[in-house]
Specification:
The structure holds two protein chains of two kinds. Helices cover 75% and strands 0% of the residues of chain A. Chain A is mostly helical. Chain A has one domain. Chain A is globular and about 60 Å long. By secondary structure, chain B is mostly helical. Chain B has one domain. Chain B is 73% helix and 0% strand. In chain B, α2 packs antiparallel against α3. The longest helix of chain B has 27 residues. Classes of the chains: A mainly alpha, B mainly alpha. The interface between A and B is large, with 36 and 37 residues.
Chain lengths: 265, 261
């Protein structure tokens, strides 16, 4: 079998198990989507605040911004570290290692199929919010949509790569996910989830621009809304962090496998 | 009463002993707690940079709301997540049987069996922020005394909501993350409820997910602005939710069929 055909077969196998898995846990997925309402809560406060305060965005723009944040968050959520941690701690990583393919492949495909299963809930929430705030409805330009799709894909890829590299720490520690929790803390405050970076003090924005965080959420949102943004820099920063994540992953993966003792075997 | 205290000492003593296995986590959770609080204060400050009073609240007053929110997060992390998150496991494995057979109130056992010290930094820093901001606003000791009731009430409300949701796992084993939804909705408690647009937002955060009574009301009472009717309603709500959580648990148990036996 040619490598291409083998790849397609694996892809089909993993995506069909993924679809089966996630449609079994529909109710859970619905709840996970609902758990992503924080941008919608922040939208309420910012909408109210911008009605009277001096902010760079008006209430309608804030509403659009946070709707876009909600959408981008739903499309780029990564949870591989918890999955990986469970596999290492319980020893179920062993059968995955016996398969003639890198386990990372399975996790990527599962994340992608989960997006499909999640989409209806996320779209329903978006629809309800547009009914509540019809002033925020707008049709993004086709070019912006394409660019934003690329931005979302890049954001997801980099988030995944970095989290997967963190997950490798699980070979040595039972609580690798606390690394992700710490990382997520900075993510929340610098990625644009709680507020558009436009309202941040200049100094914080400058510092944030050197971290990957604003490019995970704020950058694709800007692209989607068709607002001015340094497109090349955004993709370049994401690419650099992807490479860093990949390098870390390769190093930790090789050493980790040697260290792995297959709990319960 | 003495028996309850003795049980609590046993429960929490063993829990802490077990958690001490993971001492290095403490540093991590203190770091997370401080980082989260700094970020939250910064996030709140963004509104004041625009030259507004958030929902009519002065900066220190809004900090008191945020501080009390942090305390409630600490309560969730020390008691609620540690205990109520396990109910689903008991149902899944059928070990709820053993709990029900113990000569102690099952709800009490399920709610207090474990204590996770990792939420303590949140409790400490949150209380610190409330006190610091409160002194900044010249909160009087009388108001602190009066506020004890709504403060306790807010903890009871939080607990009852959690417990009711956790109890639903007796029917729907798979939806353990329903509490994640509650947690993210409760995020609204970082802000005084008047910071939200009038209408749907405020209605939801007052009556459906009562964050107004969780953080706004206690802060108002501390500031001496609490209306008696609101305090009475808040306490009534706490009592009603607590009674409801007990009744709901008993009702749910009728549908508990155990597992693998």
């Amino acid at each position: 079998m040619s490598p291409g055909a083998a790849f397609l077969r694996k892809l089909r196998a993993f995506s069909s198990t993924g679809v089966a898995l996630f449609s079994e846990y529909r109710a859970e997925l619905l709840l996970w989507s609902l758990a992503g309402v924080i941008p919608l809560i922040m939208m309420g406060v910012w909408r109210e605040a911008s009605a009277t305060g001096a902010f760079p965005l008006d209430p309608t723009e804030f509403t659009r911004y946070f709707l876009a944040v909600f959408f981008v968050r739903q499309a780029t959520i990564v949870w591989v570290i918890w999955d990986f941690e469970t596999h290492v701690v319980s020893g179920t990583l062993s059968p995955l290692l016996l398969q003639p393919t890198n386990p990372a492949f399975r996790f990527v495909v599962w994340h992608l199929t989960e997006r499909l299963a999640r989409a209806p809930f996320a779209l329903a929430v978006l629809g309800i919010w547009l009914l509540l705030f019809p002033d925020a409805a707008f049709l993004p330009r086709l070019g912006d949509v394409c660019l934003a799709a690329l931005g979302i894909a890049a954001s997801f890829a980099t988030r995944f790569m970095i989290q997967y590299a963190f997950a490798m720490v699980g070979f040595w520690s039972e609580r690798a996910s606390s690394l992700e929790e710490l990382w997520f803390l900075v993510y929340v405050f610098l990625s644009g989830v709680i507020a558009p970076l436009d309202v941040y003090p200049e100094g914080v924005r400058t510092v944030a621009a050197f971290t990957p965080f604003p490019y995970f959420v704020y950058f694709p949102v800007q692209l989607l809304l068709g607002r001015e943004e340094n497109v090349l820099r955004g993709f370049a920063v994401l690419a650099v962090w992807w490479v860093l994540g990949y390098a870390l992953y390769r190093v930790l993966w090789r050493r980790g496998l040697r260290h792995y003792s297959a709990m319960g075997a | 009463m003495m028996r309850t205290l003795r049980l609590l000492r046993l429960f929490w003593g063993t829990s802490i002993a077990a958690e001490m296995e993971y001492r290095s986590n403490f540093l991590m959770s203190a770091l997370t707690s401080v980082g989260g609080l700094v970020g939250a204060v910064f996030g709140l400050h963004l509104f004041y940079r625009g030259g507004i009073l958030l929902g009519g609240w002065q900066w220190e007053e809004a900090l008191m709301v945020l501080g009390w929110f942090t305390v409630l997060t600490g309560v969730s992390r020390t008691l609620l997540t540690a205990n109520l998150g396990r109910i689903v496991e008991h149902v899944q494995r059928g070990t709820l049987d053993f709990v029900l057979l113990k000569p102690v109130d099952a709800q009490f056992w399920l709610s207090t069996r474990r204590l996770s010290p990792w939420g303590i930094p949140d409790l400490v820093f949150g209380l610190g922020l409330v006190l610091w901001a409160g002194f900044g606003r010249g909160v009087s000791p009388v108001h602190v005394l009066v506020a004890l009731l709504p403060l306790a009430g807010s903890i009871v409300i939080l607990y009852s909501l959690w417990f009711i949701l956790a109890t639903t796992t007796i029917w729907y084993v798979k939806i353990y993350n329903v509490t994640e939804v509650l947690n993210s909705l409760l995020e609204a408690g970082r802000f005084p409820v008047s910071a939200f647009p009038a209408g749907l937002y405020r209605f939801v955060f007052t009556f459906i997910v009562p964050v107004a009574f969780l953080t706004t009301l206690p802060a108002e009472v501390l500031l001496g602005r609490g209306r008696l009717s609101a305090i009475a309603f808040g306490l009534g709500l706490a009592l009603a939710l607590f009674v409801a959580s007990r009744a709901f648990f008993r009702f749910a148990l009728r549908y508990y069929t155990s597992a693998s036996s």
